[in-house]
Prior knowledge:
This protein is α+β, with helices and mostly antiparallel strands. The protein has two domains: 4-125, MutM-like, N-terminal (N-terminal domain of MutM-like DNA repair proteins, Alpha-Beta Barrel); 137-266, Helicase, Ruva Protein, domain 3. It has nine helices and ten strands. Strands 1-6-7-5 form a four-stranded antiparallel beta sheet. The protein has a four-stranded antiparallel beta sheet with strand order 2-3-4-8, covered by helices on one side. A two-stranded antiparallel ribbon has the order 9-10. Helix 1 packs across helix 7. The longest helix has 20 residues, at 192-211.
Amino acid sequence: MPEGPEVRRIADRLAKVLTPTPLEDVWFSLADLKPFEKRLVGQRVTHVDSWGKALLLTFEDGHVLYTHNQLYGRWAVGRVHAPPSLSRALRVSLVTDRHIAQLYSATDITLWHRDTIHEHPFLAKLGPDVLTHGVTIEQILERFEQPRFARRRLGGLLLDQAFLAGIGNYLRSEILFFAGLMPHWKVADLSPVARERLASVILDVTQRAWRQAGVTNIDAWQTPLKAAGLKRAQWRHAVFNRAGEPCHACGTLIERQDVTSRRLYYCSHCQR
């Protein structure tokens, strides 16, 4: 399932094709959105944001289209003369003079206004998005201090979207590895230095995954693996999905355990 970096890349792609020129055609499959089709034609999409796994498309008149892909939803982009063609149920179609963006299979699609979008029941529960809201190390450190987060174990906290939105399962393992921390440790038990290192790593690893299309491994470790002809899955991550393989840093075999009912990978030497 895509995590924050993948959803942010979708937002970037949609913004690239939808913001330059006004919409020439708008189509919704949901009956309650049909009345807005004609109203949105001729408007520009001013910007596209991601917030956790939700996408927010803002139009010139202030309306905001909220979509969440859930398990099966998928955005597809193509040229007008070569539109996407997926064997899925079409939910949304937005067409400019050059491009067409279509959402398939998703069912969580609603239209809001920029003045009320913060009241959306899903978004209201989310913390700031690491890639969208300009989150800083200082802001993460402040959130560490909040009573609802300070006594949490790191393995559960990093998946809590109320803490920071957009961090999913592969990011959790990679963040803890690069920060040198174990999932059962609590925020309150960390030294100020460890907290600052964790905050920095959260930003670094998430941004790396965004820039590199889901790759979190560092160049020094992935480059020789690529040169050896290994597949992407074998050099994409430092620890995630690598149980039984040697740690790139120390050679210790990577281990796996279930934390909050989801698989987590770690190096017992580097994270001791």
